[in-house]
């Protein structure tokens, strides 16, 4: 049986979301279903508020027996399912004030290329690495999963290797191309991220994707795997590059942090931080901050001087590095975003430039 059943209420709401070009569907008691289109929530055409019976019934439409058992135990559950032939849907079911609520996100079946996403060229060099740790960071809904799917797709297209992904839940589905791609979903294929990471070294991987490094054990395994000659991609929910590295180090007890800094400095290859910004004229466009782990940056990490990483980013343009503010400035000058939207998403708004700088007769950005 297909989930949801064609013509069911969830199926029709997803159809309305798809036709609107939206990304998310929010279902909660007391208000009409909400669509997120170009980053903005708006109600569906039928503005009738949902009842408890409505949200319970709609959840039942997309639960199989296994998911139903998890839901009845935890009252919060992440899972994914295929919808028609159009997309996969990432779902989060939860309770609020005792009532069922749902957040559904559309994941297109086709994986965009790195050029289609407008990823900085240096990210392509990360895809060509054979070992190291690459972090992709940003707030929820910033496109991290799509960026990583694009990178994995590029590796899968370019070279023969064994790729293992550990996800919660699986979003983009990768076909076997030049590579063998094994995708493991937490809760279905493995009990937890640490369990899957512990097993990974016995599964002969060349490339490992960790959907999220949530805890000390996952971080420890990911660092060890990257140190032992494997290429590891992982995500973190953080606000900038320096915070990402500090988050990894701070997870460990104080007496272990010095050793972890040495380990991180040795394993790290790069950090990509991204934000999605409303595009002038509609849609969203990504702004990026990219750090390449050179010798100077590795020394700053080992010495516990992550607060100085920003200076290294500012001066690292020749190596492909860019600060978020430099990226935002370029988008403003290209007419793709407004200054107001750029300022609201920056921790250093004074560094955003609205027009090219002119020095000694030359125009510089």
TrEMBL record:
Name recorded for this polypeptide: Type IV pilus twitching motility protein PilT
Annotated transmembrane regions: none
Similarity comment: family membership: Belongs to the GSP E family.
PROSITE patterns: T2SP_E (PS00662)
Annotated SMART domains: AAA
Residue intervals of the Bacterial type II secretion system protein E domain: 201-215
Organism expressing this protein natively: Kribbella jiaozuonensis
Top-level taxon of the source organism: Bacteria
GO MF annotation terms: ATP binding; ATP hydrolysis activity
SUPFAM superfamilies cross-referenced by the UniProt entry: P-loop containing nucleoside triphosphate hydrolases
Record Gene3D superfamilies: 3.30.450.90, P-loop containing nucleotide triphosphate hydrolases (3.40.50.300)
InterPro entries assigned: AAA+_ATPase (IPR003593), P-loop_NTPase (IPR027417), PilT/PilU (IPR006321), T2SS/T4SS_dom (IPR001482), T4SS_GSP_E_ATPase (IPR050921)
Coiled-coil intervals: none
